[in-house]
Amino acid sequence: MTAFQDSPPGRALPWCHQWRSSAWFITLVVTYGIAIDTLTDAIVVPILPFRLLDLGYHNIASDTGQLLFARSAGTVTFTLPVAYFFHKYPYRRLPLEVSVLVMIAANVLLMLSTQFWTMILARYISGAASTVTLTVGLTLIGENVKEVKAGRHLGLAMSGLALGQSIVAQAPIGTVLYEHLGWKAPFIFCIGALCLDIFLRLFVLERVNIRVFHEKRLGLKPDSLKPKLLNGKITTPVHHHIRDFSYAELNKAEREALLGIDLNPWQVLKAMVRSPRGMTAIMSMFTYGLLSGTLQPVITVRIQELWNKNSDSVGLVYFIATFPTLISGPIVGYCADRWGAEWVMLPSMLLVLPWPPLMLETGGIGAFIVYFLFFNLFSNCAFYPSGLESTIIARRTQGISEIHQFGIMEVAFATATAVGTLVGGHVYDEVPSNAGWDAVMWFLFAIALLSLPMVFFFSGEDPWVKKIFSRKQPKIAGQSVSMQRLGDDNEDNAGGEKKRMDDKAEEVWLEMKAKMEDDQRGYSKQKKKSDSSNSAFEV
């Protein structure tokens, strides 16, 4: 984004404006935010059982499950209202900053809590703040990144989940702080990381920030440079001190707001349910949440009971098992961009299946760590492309934007995590004859197995069912899947017939882009001929 050009004398450009508005900086800030959000949740997983023991509780696995459930309940409660509100009013940076302040308050409350109900309340509040971080953050990436690179950027952002779990959350950092400095130390560490998070978010420059900057430096009225709807078409104002109008590119929510396309929450939900491909992305998130949520309250207790390990050793196990997921996100995103999500999702889910039965073994802890590592790696790889799938479906469905799709994915993930934590904790405690761990492992195996049909039939632009049972024309060499998928006119693989995007908003957006190009060409002629352009109006 390079809209800062031709500044009048004496008007300083924003500091480091180029990298502050770049797609990679926005992606890195969101990735860090997601990692720190995960940190505040995951740092308590290996130490909560020990804290509950210190406070005199007895049903440790089930009580831990209830505390984990409380955060998921807060996320489920607030996600859909957040998605609907910030689709209608497309603020991005401000809610991300406020959510960090709320998260800090929730951490302070949990740190000072000695009563179980206040711990539940703190977890619930943190879940409400978490939904803003994930939903609005991923939407910010989707709106500021080119379509052909969306997969790798979203993959990197989603790897923030693994980053928070491995390096700073469930690695020895959290457990060592608890072991040597007490219960409050991990939360003080989290609050410090959250302060850095809000500091980074202050540097993000969105397109709207660039437009407001131009209006102020040129002495124009507010919204003078904002695209407007004239005679049924979106028109972008031009000014002789601005050569690059990339700041005026509207996201899907803004375009549809100008065009008067506004669905109520039930219509949004109905439109999303109608897309099998979109529902597959949502179910992938649900499956991942169920797999990870079921393990969270029981794996610490399992390691402690079977090998008599303390919190330091449990943290080290988590670190080793989750470290590979740090680099898998961008790689998986690139593969999904290049070849299609279906080439990642189905093979990864198939590779999840062997590991739960292997984790039933009671041999050495080294073998257990290896099994846990591969289970965690492939379950993460299976869900990473769901962000790209959601972005594609949102851009092809009238009345739906990225924030709707990411919002429902967050609901699916939080609901599954809540169910998983309750199921895992209670099954581990209640199943007789010390068979709770066996029941949990076979439950994970069944969930992974049941998710395969939907991924086989509906994931990706060219699902596996079509690859196997239909003859396809070969793809043009060197052309990425994302380019084929996000083009205005797609080539149908089966019959070679062109399909058209029937989304009216997309057609209007293409007209607007052409109009903007004409405006810029007209401006160049204007400087030479000293007369106004015929292709756009001037402020």
UniProtKB/TrEMBL annotation:
SUPFAM superfamilies tied to this protein: MFS general substrate transporter
Any GO CC annotation of this UniProt entry: membrane
Pfam family of the protein (one): MFS_1
Keyword Membrane: yes
Membrane topology note: Multi-pass membrane protein
Keywords: Membrane, Transmembrane, Transmembrane helix, Transport
Gene3D superfamilies for the chain: MFS general substrate transporter like domains
Name of the protein this chain belongs to: Major facilitator superfamily (MFS) profile domain-containing protein
